[in-house]
Amino acid sequence: MRTKLKTYDHIVPTGAAPKTSGLRALAALAITATGVWFAVPAAAEEARKFGPDALNSYCDGQKRYLAIIKESDEKFGVTGTDESVEWIRARQAENNAQIEKDLGAPYLEWAPVAASEWWDQRCEALWRGWLMIEEKDAMASTSNDTRKVEEALALLYIKMTSRELFKNFDGRPYKGATCKSDVIDGFRLTGCTLFGGGFFDGFFSDPMIFMVANKDGHPAFVPLETNTKEDIQSSYYSDVNGNPVMTGWYVGSYPLPFDWPEAVNRFAK
Fold it and tell me: Is residue 200 pLDDT above 70, yes or no?
C-alpha cells in the first residue's frame, strides 16, 4: 500500500537574506549571481537614468527599512501600536530622503520604476547571491537545461536525505528523492519528491517545484515555494558531470505566469 504524505518537516539552516516580521513586510521586501563566471547584472534599462548604482542604492534603502522594522519590534513589540507606526513612519521618511539623495530623483520618480522593474525582487536576488531570472530567461530554456537541472536537484536532495535532514510528520527520515520535469503553459518545470519515511517506504512528500531557465547560455533553476527557498542555499549546484547549474530568484509579476495548481497536480505522487 502506497500512502501519500502531504507535507514534510526538515532542518536546514536558512540563508543570509534579511528577514522581516510577517506583519510588517508592507511594501518593502521581496527582493547576481555570484559565483562561477557571472558578473552582477545591471538593472533594467529604465533604471539607468538613476545611475549605474541605482539598484544597489535602492537595496541599501531596503536594508535600512528592515533594520527600522527590527528595531521597532524590539522597542514596541511585533503587534503594532499607534506609537510604533509613527516611529516607523518618521524613520522611513528619513530613509526615503536618503534614497532620493542617492538616486538623485524624488520618490515620485523612482518609486514607479522600482515597482515596474521589480526592484524588491532584484534586491532579494542580490542579497542571496542568486541570478535574477525573468520570464524571458525561463522561456529561453531548453530540454538540455531541464536535464541538467533535474540532475543537480536530484543529487542535492539525495545528499540531503542521506544526512536525514528531511523528516515526515512522525519524525521518520525520508530516504531519497526523485525529480521529473514537464512543460506547463510554455514553461519548463522540474518537481522533486521525497520518498520513504514510513512503513514499506510508501510515504511521499508534496512536490518541490522549480522553474527551469537559461541565463546567458547557462542552465539555471528557480525555487518557487517557501520550503524550497529554504532548502536551497548555494548560488549553484552541479549536474552529474560536475557542471554548475545556477540558482536564480524569479523577477516578475505574480501570480506566477503558469497554472500553479496544475503544476502541483502533475508533479504530486
Answer: no
